[in-house]
Amino acid sequence: MSKFENYLKTEKPDYSKKMMTLKKGQVSFHNCNTIHSSFPNTSNKNRLALAVHLQDFNNKYQEVYNDKGDLVVIGYDKICNKDTFGKPNYRDSNFFPVIFKNIENGS
After folding, report:
1. Which contacts (CB < 8 Å, 24+ apart) does range 4-10 have?
2. Residue 1: partners with Cβ closer than 8 Å, 6 or more residues away
3. pLDDT at 107 over 70
4. Residues 54-79: pLDDT tens digits?
């Protein structure tokens, strides 16, 4: 993380760093722009973490390029199946199962 923090200091000087300490049983909800990590587990007990990524019905793959003009590729883009245009299919039920459906508006 120190290398990444050095990058942020140089390339994104308006970033902010905040410490968040969670107690046993607490949950953190944050968006994809939040970079997060944990300090090493120095106890003799295992640490368990669960990440759930949610997307709304209308979410779909969008090509995004970094400051150097390179296509940004995230892990999900590599593992899900592709749509008829060869783009990552964010409706691939193997990786993006529907866990809630709003029956009032069909989404």
Report:
1. 4/35
2. 37
3. no
4. 888 888 899 999 999 999 999 889 99
User: Which range scores top for mean pLDDT: 11-15, 48-52, 103-107?
Assistant: 11-15
CA count, 13 A, side-chain hemisphere, 36: 13
User: What is the full DSSP assignment across the chain?
Assistant: -HHHHHHHHHH-TT------PPPTT------TT---------SSS-----------TT------B-TTSPBP--HHHHHS-B-TTSSB-TT-TTTS------TTTT-
